[in-house]
Amino acid sequence: MEVAVLVGEDGEPLYWHAPAENSSVSIPDSTELWAQIWEHRERLRGIAHSHPGDGFASPSHEDITTFRAIELALGRSLMWWITTKEHAVTIRLCGPNPLDFSYLHLDAERESLPRWLNELRKRSKYDNE
Amino acid sequence: MNDLVVTGAQARLNITYAGSNGDLPDLVSQDATDATILAMVTEAVRSGSVPGLLADPNADFSDFVVDRFAPTEARPLPLLQVRPKTPFGASEVPSAEEWIRCAAELELLRGVEVWVRSNLPVVDPTLSVLLDALSALRGGKPRC
Predict the structure, then answer these.
(1) Chain pair A-B, CB pairs under 8 angstroms
(2) Binary contact (B67, A31; C-beta < 8 A)
(3) Can you give the pTM of this predicted structure?
(4) Is B55 an interface residue toward A (CB < 8 Å)?
(5) Where are the domains of chain B?
(6) pLDDT tens string B18-43
(7) Residue B68 near chain A (CB below 8 Å)
(8) For B63, left (φ over 0), alpha (ψ -120 to 50), or beta?
(9) What value of ipTM does the predicted structure carry?
(10) Is residue A27 within 8 Å of residue A2, measured between CB atoms?
């Protein structure tokens, strides 16, 4: 199941988003999720969400356009993370075109992974896929 | 989000953009379509007509949505709120543009793989690393 989490500047999760409407391949548009993003906007570092499977984590067109819309609304850039069961990436919208992005693969062998990442994978119930 | 009944009533229109939040000075028809609302908001923000929001000639609301709230005791007018969309994951029906973009990326990756195999010596230690990475990239494109 796809799950999202808001991550604070201190690296701690601010809000877990896993409503019943989430499916194994999508997180639908949510008024509540936006309300949480707005409420936590002053200390929000970024937003992570999970994708199904264990392949490479790459953003969909839906993901990228959502990233951009949220950044336009907040008036600032955020970190965006996507994880699968085995891989995770950090994504930034980098320009010059509105939907251009850069990504960095998070390598568990070279760096310590954020604590919320393991919790995100656990809540995504990969073992049930 | 839509809990309004069609009545022809006027509603307050609230907009969130660039870290600020403000109401359109004039009321709008609560029955206006989302497309009409977003066009109205785009023009208002671009011209600086929304108190509390700085003018932005490049304001883009193409990926914003309209939430609609019925009046309450505390808020006697219906409320329309313009906010960014928040879905993640694959669209249920990918657009033709998405398919073309994904196909182009996959072809590019195949092209890169062919070049790597043709130009790096078999004994080059980076060859297997690159091929593994390309394989992972191609294999991890579940959205296409």
Answers:
(1) 115
(2) yes
(3) 0.77
(4) no
(5) 10-89, 96-139
(6) 999 999 999 999 999 999 999 999 99
(7) no
(8) alpha
(9) 0.91
(10) yes
